Amino acid sequence: MLGSMAGVVVVGVGPGIGLAVARRFGWGGMSAGLVARSESTVKAAAAELGSADVLPVTADVTDEAALRAALDRVVQAYGVPDAVVYNAALIQADRVGDLTAKQHLDAWAVNVVGAMTTAAHLAPAMAERGNGSFLITGGMPLPKPDYASLSLGKAGIRALVTLLHQQYGAAGIHAASVTVSGGVGPGTGWDPDEIANHYWRLHTQAPAEWIHEIVI
């Protein structure tokens, strides 16, 4: 065992929102399981967090077996998580007609199916325990024709949040999305550290105060 404190799992960690969320939850005394496709990316994120209780793991979210194995490694280290943050997305400019069917399926696999796999793997144990939060990074408050695949994916995320609430809300799982409506960058209106505070706010809300989407 690397530690005994259940904490947060961040799937799709990177130098922006994912790292900021892990840091914010670490300030709350929580361990962090970090999952990214690239070993260099996830190790860099762990190094940024310094001496925090962190486990970096690599997995491609489109590879179901690898993603489930990565999540199992985090659970074995820290126990069933208190919070799960799905932050993976394939962000690309495309219009209707630009992509092949296979390219659309590849985008959907990252933007939506990976989140479903993560929820399917972790939410039942969280529900059995009786509490926890499952938070997803959203975007595209309105569909944009120059970002067709991402618009479809973020609409799917909204539907998934609703489905998770319907299935697990009564068991104490708070499902919600943080919809980021602009380009993320330090010192902008979408500063990752400020965005991370919204995830913490959602995680710490009492059930009577639950909201299921924050748009920023």
From TrEMBL:
It holds the Pfam family adh_short. This is NADP-dependent 3-hydroxy acid dehydrogenase YdfG.
